[in-house]
Amino acid sequence: MPRYADRMLADGERVALRSRQHWLAPLVRGRTAWAILIAAVVLLALNSNLNQGAARDIFGWFAFALLAISLLWLTQVFMAWYSEDYLVTNRRVLKVEGILKKRSADSSLEKINDAVLEQSVLGRMLGYGDLDILTAAETSVDQYRMLAQAQTFKRAMLDEKRRLEEEVYQLPGPPLRAAPEPAAAPAAVGAAAATERGPRHLSSDEITKALGSLADLRDRGAISAEEYDAKKQDLLGRL
Questions:
Q1: Which of the four pLDDT bands, split at 50, 70 and 90, describes residue 23?
Q2: What's residue 195's pLDDT?
Q3: Which among 117, 210, 185, 214 is positioned nearest to 156, based on CA atoms?
Q4: Are residues 212 and 134 part of one domain?
Q5: Are 50 and 41 in contact (CB under 8 A)?
Q6: 20 to 30 Å CA-CA from 31: which of 19, 24, 68, 167?
Q7: pLDDT in the model for residue 194
């Protein structure tokens, strides 16, 4: 049976990476429930040493009530964690949360400018971190707390963004700050690939988005003004 997030994928959309919060997240989120569980166990142990009577019965029922509440609470916390689905696709980053009532949020790759990853010492050891996805205005549009495979998730997202810029808009699309510098392809191979692919006609919306991406690359110094003007004329010629 397909998962909820899989049913939200569009035609031609593929999943590059799937993740969720680290397994430590439900332990931290359920710390109050864990404290109640420990208290209930302690009360039950103390209750076994009391003499028979009404006080022992009341004390015992209270301890059992705390035990039941803590177990139900922890079950809800772990089910919520298990229901999480964080996807990197070739078009967007998708977050799905909720057990019965689902909540989904996505960030289009073309609108992502960068991603800030913070990891503590323990996070680096266990492979989790806090990831903030930023727009061109350096505004956080989505946050992932205690994300499992944090570095891999960020790298996959930036790789898919670069791929989208190259394949859809045919931009030079250098990697963002966190992406590794790719090895330069031989000139003959690049020329052959460009010949096979060939220019294609673009819609006005695609041209507008492509020009915006080019302007951003120019402003960041990734391409020169001459390269920007040449690519601009090429794009306008493909209307």
A1: very high
A2: 46
A3: 117
A4: no
A5: no
A6: 19
A7: 46
Residues 72 and 108 in one domain: no
Q: Is the pTM above the cut of 0.90?
A: no
DSSP state letter for 180: P
Same structural domain, 100 and 209: no
Statement to judge: residues 194 and 220 lie in one domain:
yes
> Average pLDDT in the 5-10 region?
90
Are residue 131 and residue 16 in the same domain, yes or no? yes
Distance CA 156, CA 160 (A): 6
Tell me if 174 is assigned to some domain.
Answer: no
With residue 181 as reference, give the H or E element that holds it: none
Q: In what order do the strands lie in the sheet with 114-118?
A: 114-118, 128-134, 140-148
Residue listed under structure tokens 């359920």: 30
Range of the domain at 124: 6-21+84-160
- The residue to which tokens 């493909």 are assigned: 238
